[in-house]
Amino acid sequence: MVIANDALARVRSLGGGVARRAGRRARAGRRGDGRVRARGDDFPSFFPPEVRELTEPAAIEMAKRCEMVTVRVPGRAVAIETSCVRDEGPDGSSAPPFVLLHGFDSSCLEYRRLLPKLATRAETWAIDLLGWGFTDAGDGGVGDYSPEAKRAHLYAFWKENVKRPMVLCGASLGGAAAIDFATNHPEAVEKLVLIDAQGFIEGLGPMGALPRPIAKVGVNVLRTVPLRSAANQLAYYDKATYATDDALRVGRLHTFAPQWCDATLSFMKSGGFKVRNSIPKVPVETLVVWGRDDNILEPSYADKFMSELPNARMVWVENCGHVAHLEQPDFLCETLFDFVGSAKETERVTA
After folding, report:
1. Residue 295: which domain range?
2. Looking at 45, 107, 172, 266, which residue is catalytic?
3. Residues in domain AB hydrolase-1 (predicted)?
4. What residues contact residue 334 under an 8 Å CB cut-off, 6+ apart?
5. Candidate list 102, 153, 322, 325, residue with the active-site label
6. Which residue is catalytic, options 105, 144, 196, 294?
7. Cα–Cα distance measured from residue 351 to residue 339, given in angstroms and rounded to the nearest whole number
8. Rounded distance, CA 66 to CA 141, Å?
9. Which one is predicted more confidently, 5 or 301?
10. Which pairs from 143-150 meet CB under 8 Å and 24+ separation?
């Protein structure tokens, strides 16, 4: 679900069978590089059975390409099984790798329309952040799904897999995660892309202080069809085309994963991302992308980013809501490659 924290209040009133990991390596097959992938045309075994209800070809293809990578985070006894999709891109590409971060309570399937387009010209990764999507620590569990834990996990993933400075793209709350990462690990980030990003809303507000039993009720509401449907309607400009039943199925698929509830509760307890004071300290050139008709994070936030980021460009996406990577992937792809190929100083560009 690509919905920011401040939008939860708008839809909360409307909403209010899982595949276990035992034996999954034997069923899916572990390759020599330690990755778990699907065999043939089947889905990877770490997906819940509900994955077979998907009908959108792009979603089905993305799910079948999803793989588990074992990531070892320094200081943690348990290795983290990390779900992601990687495309190596064309041979000889000079473009830096793209790494795509999804929004709040979502998964890498969010990039099902953009990743294949980027991958025609560059190595591209879409990764499930720790505690969301299908990333988990296996039977041992992690326990800590805070912003700091998410950052440490992403850094370990980058060191073990990407291994060179990347174009880090974050959508919605993934934008806050990207800001947090770039300011703490500038050596890993060549450029930053913020897609309708959260940055000026600090943490989770009173949600972080709720007693666990009450918080658990709230988390379970996030899975419900009424709330997901409301979020679906908010996310898009062209609702008739994109706010479909299948988009709803994709958006709630990860909520059937065994770790989802506990991981979301842990994140809530941590207080969430607080990057407001980090925005002026972002050390790399940044592209701010905003849907002109975003009904989740109003477009005025784009101007705030432009006034505080030290080196930024901006592109408005017309006829687009909160999710340009889903609603306008062709335009966004060209915009990203224009940005990667540019060496311009801070300026404002209108699409």
Report:
1. 5-348
2. 172
3. 98-334
4. none
5. 322
6. 294
7. 13
8. 21
9. 301
10. 143/266, 144/266, 144/270, 145/263, 145/264, 145/266, 145/267, 145/270, 146/266, 146/267, 146/270, 147/177, 147/180, 147/267, 147/270, 147/272, 147/273, 147/274, 148/270, 150/177
What pLDDT, on the 0 to 100 scale, is given for residue 15? 35
**Confidence label for 41 from pLDDT (cuts 50, 70 and 90):** low
Pair of tokens at residue 143: 């326990």
| CB-based contact 66:85 (threshold 8 Å) | yes
Does position 343 have pLDDT exceeding 90, yes or no? no
The upper half-sphere exposure of residue 162, i.e. CA atoms within 13 Å in the direction of its Cβ, equals 28
d(CA 88, CA 125): 8
DSSP three-state, residue 96: coil
Q: CATH number of the domain that 232 lies in?
A: 3.40.50.1820
CA separation for the pair 132, 82 (Å, rounded) = 10
The total of structural domains in the chain comes to 1
Ramachandran sector of residue 117 (left: φ over 0; alpha: ψ -120 to 50; beta: rest): alpha
Determine contact, residues 108/326, Cβ cutoff 8 Å: no
Task: Judge contact between 196 and 172, C-beta under 8 A.
Answer: yes
* Active-site residue, 172 included: yes
Q: Catalytic site residue 266? A: no
- List, in sequence order, every residue forming a beta bridge with 192; answer none if it has no partner: 168, 286
What is the rounded distance in angstroms from the CA atom of residue 67 to the CA atom of residue 82?
8
Whether 294 is catalytic is yes
pTM above 0.90, yes or no: no
Q: What is the pLDDT of residues 87-121, one digit of tens each?
A: 999 998 889 999 999 999 999 999 999 999 999 99
**Structure tokens of 316?**
């408005």
Q: Which residue has the higher pLDDT, 119 or 205?
A: 119
